[in-house]
Amino acid sequence: MAGSSLWVVRLASLLAVGFVVGSVEASPGDAHPLYRTCVKECKNTGVIGSNIISHCQSQENDSTSAGSSWYTQEPLYMQWKHQSCMSDCRYYCMIRREEERQLGGLSPVKYHGKWPFKRVSVFQEPLSAALSALNLLTHFIGWLSFFLQVNYRLPLRPQTKRTYYEYTGLWHIYAILSLNAWFWSTIFHTRDIDLTEKLDYSSAVAQLGYSLILTLLRTFNVKDEAGRVMFAAPILAFVTTHILYLNFYELDYGWNMKVCVAMGVVHIVAWTTWAVVTHHPSRFKVWIVIFGGALAMLLEVYDFPPYKGYADAHSLWHASTIPLTYLWWTFVRDDAEFRTSTLVKKAK
């Protein structure tokens, strides 16, 4: 047990150092004066070198400033149909700056929190969009199998016809938030506009925050409502405040990374400690998810530019979460079966 605890401390320390160092400078590309000048001139003229941005030259875009609110911009379905003036200006100015940096022997940098990717048709990040959709499908299949198991395959309480498993409702909420997060991740990686970006970040933070609540309730085996409220209230308050900060004050990529990785580290420590002390028959699945999730989190912390403009660390993280998600839902089903069996024996 001492060796396992030491491993957890070392892993948490590595992640903590990584996210502090990795998020000191979140988006140096869009902060550069040459990039900002390029975007400003593009919005005014609609011309970047040999590229002509017709959206910037049309009358409906002339009156829309870059810093205007989302509700004053063109309708969402129009932004989805074609690249907006701002989106095209940012993209071509980014490509232009990266060509200049490459000629100078410099490595790629991030723009607005993201690496420079190559578009494919309407998909701005085709690999990440496809992998996000697969994560969405995996979560849906996992939740559906859990739903069928607890409601139709396991015994129900004879008086209330409700499940014996004490965390059924909490896992249903977890599934809904996960499906929502991966849905908006798919949309955001397909079309990056202000609204989809905020929905993606907000949904991810909400899902991660709720997962932290569920983690603490399950690992500490909290069953009474008062205890659950005591655990959930401060985390809900913090996550809500953080989401409001991102949406209405500043979408700070570096600060958001710190918050998310910090919650991820708490996840790892809590589940690892639980897996060490418990005699749960499926604890080995928790160990696999913990170790795999920690390695996957390192992809988010120790980031690298996209290979050939398509596959970066973030897309590889999306790929790694697919098998982990499948395994995690099998553990949830095992946990429901184990707890139900224990409670049924006690009832008899």
Describe this structure in words.
The protein has helices at residues 2-22, 28-31, 33-45, 54-57, 59-62, 76-81, 85-103, 126-153, 168-190, 194-219, 225-248, 253-277, 283-301, 313-347; strands at 47-48, 51-52. The protein contains 14 helices and two strands. A hairpin with a 2-residue loop joins strand 1 and strand 2. By secondary structure, it is mainly alpha-helical. It has a two-stranded antiparallel sheet with strand order 1-2. The chain has two domains: 26-57 and 78-115, no CATH class; 119-345, Up-down Bundle (Rhopdopsin 7-helix transmembrane proteins).
Descriptive key words:
golgi apparatus; mainly alpha; Rhopdopsin 7-helix transmembrane proteins; 2 domains; two-stranded antiparallel sheet; 348 residues
- Look up the CATH topology of the largest domain: Rhopdopsin 7-helix transmembrane proteins
CATH class of the largest domain: Mainly Alpha
Strand content: under 5%
Average of pLDDT = 84
Number of helices: 14
Largest sheet: 2 strands, antiparallel
| Largest beta sheet: strand ordering | 1-2
